[in-house]
Amino acid sequence: MATLGMAVLGCGRIGRLHARNLARHPRVRLAQVFDVAGEAAQQVAAELGVRSARSVDEIWDERNVRAVVIATPTDTHVPLIVAAVKAGKAVFCEKPIDMSLERARACWGEIAADAPVVMIGFNRRFDPSYRALRERLKLGEIGRLELAVITSRDPAPPPAGYLQSSGGLFRDMTIHDFDMARYLAGDIARVHAFGANLVDAEIGRLGDIDTCAISLRARSGALVQINNSRRCVYGYDQRLEAFGSGGMLQAGNRHETSVASWNAERTTGRDVVLHSFIERYAQAYEAEMDAFVAALAEGRPVSPDFADGVEALRLAVAAGESLRTGRVVELGP
Amino acid sequence: MATLGMAVLGCGRIGRLHARNLARHPRVRLAQVFDVAGEAAQQVAAELGVRSARSVDEIWDERNVRAVVIATPTDTHVPLIVAAVKAGKAVFCEKPIDMSLERARACWGEIAADAPVVMIGFNRRFDPSYRALRERLKLGEIGRLELAVITSRDPAPPPAGYLQSSGGLFRDMTIHDFDMARYLAGDIARVHAFGANLVDAEIGRLGDIDTCAISLRARSGALVQINNSRRCVYGYDQRLEAFGSGGMLQAGNRHETSVASWNAERTTGRDVVLHSFIERYAQAYEAEMDAFVAALAEGRPVSPDFADGVEALRLAVAAGESLRTGRVVELGP
Amino acid sequence: MATLGMAVLGCGRIGRLHARNLARHPRVRLAQVFDVAGEAAQQVAAELGVRSARSVDEIWDERNVRAVVIATPTDTHVPLIVAAVKAGKAVFCEKPIDMSLERARACWGEIAADAPVVMIGFNRRFDPSYRALRERLKLGEIGRLELAVITSRDPAPPPAGYLQSSGGLFRDMTIHDFDMARYLAGDIARVHAFGANLVDAEIGRLGDIDTCAISLRARSGALVQINNSRRCVYGYDQRLEAFGSGGMLQAGNRHETSVASWNAERTTGRDVVLHSFIERYAQAYEAEMDAFVAALAEGRPVSPDFADGVEALRLAVAAGESLRTGRVVELGP
Amino acid sequence: MATLGMAVLGCGRIGRLHARNLARHPRVRLAQVFDVAGEAAQQVAAELGVRSARSVDEIWDERNVRAVVIATPTDTHVPLIVAAVKAGKAVFCEKPIDMSLERARACWGEIAADAPVVMIGFNRRFDPSYRALRERLKLGEIGRLELAVITSRDPAPPPAGYLQSSGGLFRDMTIHDFDMARYLAGDIARVHAFGANLVDAEIGRLGDIDTCAISLRARSGALVQINNSRRCVYGYDQRLEAFGSGGMLQAGNRHETSVASWNAERTTGRDVVLHSFIERYAQAYEAEMDAFVAALAEGRPVSPDFADGVEALRLAVAAGESLRTGRVVELGP
After folding, report:
1. Cβ contact B261–C254 (<8 Å)
2. Which of A122, B100, B280, C255 has its CA 20 to 30 A from that of D139?
3. Which residues of A touch C253 (CB under 8 A)?
4. Share of chain A above pLDDT 70, in %
5. Chosen CATH of A125-281+311-330 out of 3.40.367.20, 3.30.1330.90, 3.30.360.10, 3.10.105.10
6. How far is A54 from chain D (nearest CA, A)?
7. Hey, what long-range contacts does B12-16 have (CB within 8 A, 24 or more apart)?
8. D4-116, which class in CATH?
9. Is the complex ipTM higher than 0.90?
């Protein structure tokens, strides 16, 4: 099997992670990396023994690069997706597609005719535990899904600088949970959101919230609850609970070790939960790149795709509207 | 210390339970039991060696009976509370006070001048695990409460006959969770409810739901999520999760034994969860009667009191309105 | 069904416990209690509304007393068993039968011709979790038993006064685990014991040990490991693990509540384990008395019986010999 | 920092594992691999892009190879260790050093004067959970160690061919647990072993056992229990329990996912335990190679060292003697 020539755009934390995973992927030849901060790209290039492109055009022009990973700031996603597709590249783009639902849809309008291959980086779909839970659900282990509870709590708020351009809690953080809701329960018909500013007053001053309780109603009739916080002292709390006519499946957190302690104060104490999304979802990041590469190699459609990215964004926008109006937002088909 | 003369009105499942707990309570002398179905009362009376009253008036007239437990059908609660208070008895009344918020308020109007002592049977407040969780929360173990998740799933729907007069999911079942939300988070400011009919089509035909996802916003700013189902194949699923600035406290289910099994298919399999509320909350039922008796003996106010019963009912009514209108319901002070 | 007249001999902690359980047993009429310290007996008698016998002869003479519970100091067990049997009473006797294996056997010699009914108080056989584990084992859930691990750790050493007359760790504490080994694995063929004095130097000065690691080989071929300590800061640690050709069954500890806590230092912290054998085995104490009463009422043999008591003592004696000689002790049939 | 030139001898399952880990180790340059079955070596060499040596002499002669990993059959360990040391190489050798304690000691006699660097492959010391447990123990978290329980059960017996030359259960499998006992409790003074042939009659025909219960007494006074089985239907069961004056630490198994299931038969069912030692100890294999490389680079002594390998073997031999004689075996200093 021929290896797949690839490039990574954006050499921040997540771009470096993808670049490293691709560099050791047996079916991939990582050819180039790029970052507007040339130094960041050169560092990654040196570490991995690949070329550092001087411009994105260099990548578009490189015939041996058949696919690109877009891990740049959100406001550059749409133009880069368009350019990559026009240059004939398959695209893996980090979430969200854009802050604006309209721009995301317009992006599709521009590329739809080009038979675009665009996968969106909803990494949690590739977490071994979440994936296994969903497969067992689809196999009917607990009958029809009736209720799901998605818990997602970040260890600490992002830096103020990032917050300002983050698009807000729903587009930045909850978007993963919206995608997870769709992954488990299918398309969503109605959205309700409560939000609060409990963690950091600075977040409130930016007009954002840091805590939320969201209810979704799927077209199937199933109900989904999401709860988020921007701060969690015991680590990066990531859990799923799916309840159905025949039982319940839960997927839980990961710990550094399996050690548990008993003493005069308490018993069965475990380590705190893995703090970093890099560690918590290390296997997921590898698996999603694997899935992208395999789909390309085998000519299968990628998943989650551009439409999934749009749908998750639509839920984020609807949640924002619900928060403002105090009404349930109905989603058309 | 003198023992407290008491009577139990209503000899159904819950009335019998209270009667048995009182019969062996060291500070109580159970004097009488009553049921409109005289035979039911006679059976309990014979078992416990107490008198079976021929009418409620007999109980009102009995000077040695200082307190009564009202465990009759819901529509008799208000008249019995009024009569008991007018007869100078302290009252322990099962939830809900009434199906109608107006009638419940009117009831208070009738008795308020009589310095009434009325405790409402929100037994879960007395579950050792829920109680310990709340005490630790109040002691500041996890800092300020920011989010709570209340899971409450019945093993199976009640019989059709009961359903018809149950007042609907929110007033019959969720009312316990509304009270629990207040127990943890204090007064509630806003209510949103999604409901679905997924378990039993008959419930839908009765105009009721059997599955729900509720979001509450407390005056304190804390958010609370409740999820309910009328059917749970692995038992009576009763769990709390309280999340705060300093951590999380969870209270879980109870199992018949501590046995866990490992085999070629799976590991750490435990018994199903206790199926019956009688078993799950056995300690809670004893403890709430204990608390009632102790409050009377020591002249302290009872808790949860009539106002707590009204507030839980108000939340149930608001949830119904939210379900119908698709709007958040704001609660005045 | 006629109730069974019973008496309790010995009104210490365990005697009082049995007396209370019998006083509320529906098939039993507790007639008398006795203690050489008359005051102790009078207190229990007053609490439970029964007679306080002035001598054991009074009990032997009382025709309505058909069965007795012997909860007196160990050195009085044998004479009381003999006297009770000679007086035609069924006997429930606390463990151990005696400190001396020879005296225990001689006791049987004296009573064997009288068709004696003697049950020994190995309460752990009646713990719901241990019992369920054993039933599932016997039903073949994990195939043939190959290995068992019995963990038994006391919260704290008994008072020095008690230690002196306790007969040593093996006869006083491990004897329960020897019985549990037989309950799970059947008759034992070989015994090896290591012991150490790690907890309290005073125990060493008394010539005793406070920590042990014991290996048993059952006639079936199965191996059993027992570990004991006289001190356990996190409570009364009582666990079983049975491993077989088809899997493993474990039975674990009990906690006051189901609350678990997550914070910045650690996660899933539970309460300490129940500290007192009275609480840990509350259900077991009730169930063993129930089993005794039911066996008498239905004319079935009691279990564990006198021979079980002798066998457990034989294992305790053999463990002592192994500890002294550094050899495995082979047990004849 | 200069990279360390290394070679791997033996390209079976464990040799390939080490070779792969070294090939991607940032501080190592894997230069050569060797196997008497040349094809096995060529395959690994091709996969990793390294040379396949035609003879061990080629490796001894290669000045750039400063350290070797010996992962060949046990009976070649001693001659290869000697040759490697004489050639000036540092050695990492898989356990056991040899089947014969005398030969292992003689090996040391031959090399002692050469300031040999020999690390033995007791990989479990590098498992993150076991390592963390031991570090917390050494930091005094549970006070003085009093008792340890080591559970180690293989998913299935090795092939008959391997069994014949395995040296028996104690030298092949339990040797890891003997090392773990020393890792936790320090030097061992006394050994007792029970063994049984319960899993596979073929093993008995070979004069070996497949199930054992071992008791050790450390010089410190602490007691250690080991239990082993050659078959475990729920996976590769690997657990530690350390009990001390101040509490208990446990280290447990690893599962493929964190998914747990609840249904009408049972609750909290988890995946079976990871079946393969390759997966269970994947991190440990990386970490031990890391430790070897770091020790060489920094001129620190390796650990576990040759003496640790001898001591574990001595315990295996003593256990065999105890099994035969039914006596405790005392170990001199």
Report:
1. no
2. C255
3. 267
4. 100
5. 3.30.360.10
6. 28
7. B12/B40, B12/B71, B13/B278, B14/B71, B14/B94, B14/B121, B15/B44, B15/B69, B15/B71, B15/B72, B16/B44
8. alpha beta
9. yes
